[in-house]
Specification:
62 residues; mainly alpha; Dna Ligase, domain 1; Pyruvate_phosphate_dikinase; PPDK_AMP/ATP-bd; pyruvate; kinase activity
Amino acid sequence: MEKFVYQFAEGSKEMKTLLGGKGANLAEMKNIGLPVPPGFILSTAASNAYNANEKKIASNQS
């Protein structure tokens, strides 16, 4: 199963395609020690899966 949720500390600026621009930049800011509020990133794969499933969360993804 593909991973859909990432903590900021798991990402980097090189993961822009997977995390989106904002997600990758927040991850990079966290990794270099800038103050970033706690949070997480939904991957672009999560967005694509949601859209492919008629904008519904698949029962195997909840």
